[in-house]
Batch of 3 targets.
Target 1
Amino acid sequence: MEMNKERKIVVAVDESEESMYALKWCIANLMSHEENYKLVLHYVKPPLPALYSYFDAAGLIFAGDFVLAMEKYGRESANSVMERAEAVCRTSNTTNNINMERAVGTGDAKDVICSTVQKVKADILVMGSHGYGFLKRALLGSVSDHCAKHAKCPVVIVKHP
């Protein structure tokens, strides 16, 4: 790899301690002072529920208010997570070569993350592991398992100690 090339690392972040630990691990273990990085902090908001079909004409006004409230909550959650992630980056001692960028998507996390990785042409994807057991992973599915199989770049899954 040539020295001047900017390496793109996507780190999936959410409200969990596991994702913030993965971010800290990424900065400490994958980034050196000699290279330039673009660190893409990626947060995925869940999709809004489809409420419109359940209400009559009068209920649509309520549904609209609900959707606006949910959109506001989603924006506030994304900003809160991003500010927390950026604070983690600022407290690390290698941030002088890191060009940070925010990426916020909406939808099914596993699909949105894989799509973003491909769109930004990431060199690597870093994710935290929630440490779900077999049964919970089988019922809920694992975003990190899906991304490890489908992302178009190497994936590092960091387990919280």
Target 2
Amino acid sequence: MNPDDSEVKSPTIHVIREVYDSGNAHESFEAELDKALEAKVDYIIIEPTRLGDETGRWITVGNCLYKTAVLSGLSSVVSGLIWQDRPVFSAPLCAVSIFCTGLYAVSWISDPCCQYQVEKDPKKLANVPKLSEFSSPVVLALKENKKAKYFHRGVTLIASAFCAWQIYKAYK
């Protein structure tokens, strides 16, 4: 056994402090967040309220698009199986899935922020060092999302193929 394998890796943390030392402090906070996101640290603690709220909303919108695409894609396939002779039910759901997947692909996949989630679980937050130094920070946790991305795209692809086949079958 390699000695390095038995060691527990301590999480990497980056703290963005709310220090207003210039007129463009918000831009400095954003630049610091971008550096932390690119470095893929395990936890990012954001003290500036405005930046934390903006980042949290951005992640929430991305999560909403992801979930809407998956649920509408699955619903499209299920409704197509239930009403096989009526693609009118599954086609709009498939269109929603395609739209959300496309919007997610254009706006979120290239953004390093999509690899993070806002951590709200008190048990997990208890393991974040330095957190007690802040009154109400936003904590971003790095989450591996490759499988989720493939699942997301796969559901939309299957729904699209199924819907196209169903429409072809209905109008041939």
Target 3
Amino acid sequence: MVLLAAAVCNKAGKAIISRQFVEMTRSRIEGLLAAFPKLMNTGKQHTFVETESVRYVYQPLEKLYMLLITTKASNILEDLETLRLFAKVIPEYCRNMEESEIVDQSFSLIFAFDEIVALGYRENVNLAQIRTFTEMDSHEEKVFQAVRQTQEREARDQMRKKAKEIQQRQRDMAKGSRSGFGSSGGFGSSSYRSDNTVFDPTPVEPVKSSYSQPSKPSGPSKALKLSTKKKDVDTFVGQLESEGEKVVDSNKSMSTTVAKMSTPAANQESVHIVVEEKISVTAGRDGGLQNMEVLGMIKLKITDEKNGRVKIFLANNDDKGVQMQTHPNIDKKMFLASSNIGLKNPDKPFPLNTDIGVLKWRLQTQDESLMPLSINCWPSETGSGCDVNIEFELERTELELEDVLISIPCPSGVGSPVVGDCDGDYQYDSRAHMLKWTMPVIDASNKSGSLEFSIAGHPDDFFPVNVSFVSKKSYCDIQIKDVRFVEDDQPVKFSDEVLFYVDKYEIV
């Protein structure tokens, strides 16, 4: 089917929102929508009407219509199925089918429409996938938020324990000062300093300096148990290391990697641009790429009102054939002609203090040469188990991959693998039964490496192999060249950052 446009209109044919999937003038789409109510036959139960050139497929939504405009050559059954999916999307964003609420949610609805149809053809998606794509849910962000919440919770617990310790010290010193007063019959220098310490609004430092030998508390103090848990953990870690286990602080390594991906760039200018890409790869263990998908987006954030009316100059060096799509409010003709991004109405500024997605692109392929990193895993059965050889090769040498982690599953209950040769570093997670092979950087000067190990098991035990990495270079080689004012074409100071990361990368 070829879908020309999707619109939500009222019974008079006035468009509330409309998304065109082929080149079409505003007057043309308004004319088609205005003609729609006149073509409907009252009293007949139909879901479509036709003219000499187009077909209208519609579904009532209380006082409104969900309307698709297609060519007459399209499959009516596919049209109706697509219409039902469009109609299901509307209630996801609008509780009441009112014009005002449709207008309020127009951007969200248009983004959802774009996930259903691309370049006039229906995408193979369902409602749950559309919700996931439009929410742009990030696993890395969830991990970062979880780590940060854990750190904040631990800091609050530490603060409470410290406060109890300080209060206990104050009570102990108050007891000591009262006993000193009873024996001497007056305010001695020691008692005077002790009293000042008790009522000092910041008592931590004076405790150490002015009361050098406080009396011991009569009962057990909770403050004495402050480091018990940490000592137990340290003792347990020491036992593991003495038994040959290599222990790494997972929270530290996780937070370091996530921070690289989630922390905003320092010294952001009032015009800040983010080029973000994520890749999903599924490859076969015997070679061959089953599927690879790269989703990218350029997000613009403006924090100064005087820089609201700008246009962005791109250097589009893509040679892989990605499909690009601009935001509905972006001048598409200007982008196609010169790769420049600006608003359709140059008199209007971009919204302030909001991350705006102005351009998105997609690449889906089964071409092995487009894989950024190829992984070959060769398990060979021996009399006592398996010898496993695994190697990587950087296929796209223009990329620089950082924090590369290759995770190889191992069979349980057979002990740790015996590693014979390794480029980079490795560690064995005995709880997850996973051998983790890490490289800080893979680039043109360090584009290949290998790992060999032996362990009891069967060749199928070592799959799927999972890979993760981040990169500060765009996979599709889309770069921000310049930003200029619309009025006088003068340059605008801007900052930009690039983030290319893995959503899923596995060899099955």
